[in-house]
Amino acid sequence: MGTLYVKVNGIKICYEERGEGFPVLLIHGFTGNKEGWVGQYIPLSEHFRVIRFDNRNGGCSDRPNIPNTLDMLADDIKGLMDYLKLDKAHIIGWSMGGIIVQKFAIKYPEYITKIVLINTVKGAPNNQAVDLLVNNSINELELRNKNKEEAFWTSARLGYHIKFRKEMEANPNKKFYGLWSVQDLIEIQNINPITPQDIINQSNALYPPLSSDDLKKIKNKTLLIASSHDRLTTKNALIELQKIIPKSELVIIKRAGHSSPISRAPEVNKIIIDFLKR
Fold first, then answer.
1. Are 60 and 34 in contact (CB under 8 A)?
2. Is the pTM of this model over 0.90?
3. Which of 121, 135, 156, 252 sits 20 to 30 Å CA-CA off 82?
4. Contacts for 218 with CB less than 8 Å, ≥ 6 apart
5. CA pair distance 245, 264, nearest whole angstrom
6. Please, which residues bridge with residue 25 across strands?
7. Strand 89-94 relative to strand 23-27, pairing
8. In sequence order, which residues have a C-beta less than 8 Å from that of residue 159 and are 6 or more positions away?
9. Domain residues of the chain, as ranges?
10. What is the β-pairing status of strands 221-227 and 89-94?
11. Are β-strands 4-8 and 11-18 bridged in parallel, bridged antiparallel, or unpaired?
């Protein structure tokens, strides 16, 4: 099924769906887009009805020039589910998408069956951390506009374990796992590129972080996936989340960075599918 659009909370949300069965929603992260789920979209659709969409201020969804909040982003998920007449779904969030899913679970628990949180945190610890992330993201955007390949390899230092990165560099045209090539990832980074203002608007939802008291209210079974070499959302952050969210379990992907859903797609997918089908 191709790209579809729906009006939700006064804005146009762009989404795609594939597969049949129980619905699974994929929520992407900061400055990302739905295509970033290249490691999961097709494999998971062999088992579930998978829906991926662009968050507001990203991809081909509308970009109102207003600061985002977690409430807004959670309400967008609810609006999309209501439009699709989904009473319940499994919800998967990666990075900032995981923060959005945590908020959604706190606000609309009745819409969720199971939760998967990948390489995520409760939110930014302070405004300085948000400012640093914004500045780095704008610098990366400026580099992309000059040299897409160089920008990709710069960001890859954070996303991929060094051994896997070397394999990517040695095989730029290889279809890893039959799902993606380095060139595919470069193109994904540059689909409907965001603007500096989009980055600023998205970043507003990162702080303040969600409170432990609120997170303790999450009663859904929750799978936490951390990555051993993730320097953006460290495994220690997921270990702390596992202590807070009552019905949660933690798996750590070895020799992987923040982009483990891409670099370790088969392993991540097996863990997710086994958890959701349990």
1. no
2. yes
3. 121
4. 102, 105, 106, 109, 115, 245, 246, 247
5. 25
6. 51, 91
7. parallel
8. 257, 258, 259, 262, 263
9. 4-277
10. unpaired
11. antiparallel
- How far apart CA 135 and CA 200 sit, in angstroms, is 9
Structure-token pair, residue 271: 């863990």
Mapping DSSP to helix (H, G, I), strand (E, B) and coil, where does residue 235 land? helix
* C-alpha to C-alpha distance for 23 and 3, rounded to whole angstroms: 17
Percent of the chain clearing pLDDT 70 (strictly above): 100
What are the tokens at 257?
């960075």
Residue 139 in tokens = 């610098």
Q: For the segment 240-270, what is each residue's pLDDT rounded down to a tens digit? A: 999 999 999 999 999 999 999 999 999 999 9
- The type of residue at 36 is G
For residues 106 and 217, the answer to whether their CB atoms sit within 8 Å is yes
Which residue is it, tokens 């960075």?
Answer: 257
Question: Which 8-state DSSP code applies to residue 211?
Answer: P
User: Out of 3.40.50.2300, 3.40.309.10, 3.20.20.70, 3.40.50.1820, which CATH number does the structure's domain 4-277 have?
Assistant: 3.40.50.1820
Strands, E assignment, the chain: 4-8, 11-18, 23-27, 49-53, 89-94, 112-118, 221-227, 248-253
Judged by DSSP in three states, 176 sits in strand
In whole angstroms, give the CA distance from residue 210 to residue 125: 10
208: its two tokens: 């303040």
Structure-token match 């309400």, residue found: 75
pLDDT tens digits, 138-174: 999 999 999 999 999 999 999 999 999 999 999 999 9
Whether 1 shows a pLDDT value over 90: the answer reads: no
In this structure, is the dihedral angle defined by the CA atoms of residues 196, 100, 130 and 158, taken in order, positive or negative? negative
- Report how far residue 171's alpha carbon sits from residue 167's, in angstroms, rounded to the nearest whole number: 6
